[in-house]
Design goal:
Elements lengths: L4 E9 L4 E10 L3 E5 L6 H8 L7 E6 L2 E2 L4 H7 E4 L11 H11 L4 H14 L15 H13 L5 E4 L8 H18 L2 E6 L2 H4 L5 E6 L2 E7 H5 L1 E9 L8 H11 L4 E2 L12 E5 L3 H13 L4 E8 L2 H9 L5
Parallel strand pairs: 3-8, 3-9, 6-7, 7-8
Antiparallel strand pairs: 1-2, 1-4, 4-5, 9-10, 11-13, 11-14, 12-13
Helix pairs in contact: 3-4, 4-5
Bound molecules: adenosine-5'-triphosphate.
Keywords: ATP-binding, Nucleotide-binding, Transport
Protein name: ABC transporter ATP-binding protein
InterPro entries: AAA+_ATPase, ABC_transporter-like_ATP-bd, P-loop_NTPase
């Protein structure tokens, strides 16, 4: 099967910066997240895939079409939601999306029909005749999504669609994105600088950093059951910081300690993560905690979140 997106040794060098560095990727149908911090090269990648910006080296194909000579054919088949606000304030969502549909070559009646359907899909049907200037950020993001979908593309490239949204708005946008694929069968490439938020939405996640590929794998590979044990213990008069006492004793017993799960979260300092080397680790933990006269609040095998897997890899600790 032809991959939806394929790149080989793809590089983009600006005079002072290498935005993409020999990236080789195969992305299949479904919802794929392209994750990287600001400046990682996500927007550059999207512009190359749309045939809007030439690569310095290497090759890329979208839906089997070479980006170096088939930009127009790619843009007919691919929808694009840009990162920044690009909407005219004085026209309504309907006028704008009809205009974009006409630009994509749809005849007037089909453009109006597809616009109504698409605006309904993104939840903007009631407000569709109001000028965009009065819309909230979330509504504007939905208009941008609608114009990317209106010409019934086979693939949409969404650049940071959750930017500027509050947590509820983010969840709604991520739900909509998931449905673009499940309801219409359109493949999606969605960028984000937040690895965690793509976990529920994407089938596949590609992580880039400084223009280089860090990892490309299915979301379930990132989050599969790992051999990690989460341990929580009580404190005592002898050991006012029970967690620290257990951490030291386990390290002395040769147990591998992993970094804490969510350092920023309240209570996270009380959870120890250790690598479980078979059943014997459970016994060592139980004996160590008992030997210190502390109580074991919990000891459980846990799933990783993809953000943790990365934090651990980047810190050089095995995932
Ligand atoms: N036209 C350009 N000229 C020079 N440097 C550029 C140009 N476009 C992007 N860059 C640089 O290339 C690097 C990658 O930028 P890019 O916009 O692709 O990152 P990004 O991952 O999309 O981040 P963000 O979410 O902040 O846009 C950055 O260092 C950026 O400054």
């Amino acid at each position: 099967m032809t991959p939806v997106i394929a790149t080989e040794g793809l590089s983009k060098r600006f005079p002072r910066v290498t935005a993409l560095d020999r990236l080789s990727l195969d992305i299949g149908p479904g919802v794929t997240g392209l994750v990287g911090s600001n400046g990682a090269g996500k927007s550059t990648m999207i512009k190359i895939l749309l045939g809007l910006s030439p690569a310095t080296e290497g090759r890329a194909a979208v839906l089997g079409l070479d980006v170096s000579n088939s930009g127009a054919a790619i843009r007919e088949r691919v929808g694009y939601m840009p990162e920044h606000d690009c909407l005219p304030p004085d026209v309504s969502a309907t006028e704008f999306v009809v205009h974009m549909a006409r630009m994509s070559g749809l005849p007037p009646a089909a453009a109006r029909e597809r616009t109504a359907d698409t605006l309904r899909h993104v939840g903007l049907y009631e407000e569709r005749y109001r000028p965009i200037g009065g819309y909230s950020t979330g509504m504007k993001q939905r208009v941008k999504l609608a114009q990317a979908l209106v010409h019934d593309p086979r693939l949409v490239l969404l650049d940071e669609p959750t930017n500027g949204l509050d947590p509820v708005g983010r969840d709604e946008m991520l739900g909509l994105i998931r449905r673009v694929h499940t309801d219409f069968g359109i493949s999606v490439l969605v960028t984000s600088h937040l690895l965690g938020e793509l976990e529920r939405t994407c089938d596949h996640v590609v992580v880039i950093d400084g223009g280089r590929l860090l990892r490309s794998s299915s979301t379930s590979d990132f989050t599969q059951m790992t051999t990690t044990l989460a341990i929580e213990v009580t404190d005592s008069d002898t050991h006012p910081d029970g967690t620290a006492a257990v951490r030291d004793a386990l390290a002395a017993a040769g147990v591998t300690l992993l970094s804490a799960s969510e350092p920023g979260l309240p209570g996270a300092g009380h959870i120890l993560l250790v690598e479980a080397a078979g059943e014997q680790t459970h016994d060592v933990v139980r004996d160590t905690v008992a030997g210190l006269g502390l109580g074991l609040v919990r000891m459980e095998q846990r799933r990783h979140h993809i953000a943790e897997v990365f934090r651990e890899q980047k810190e050089g600790v095995p995932a």
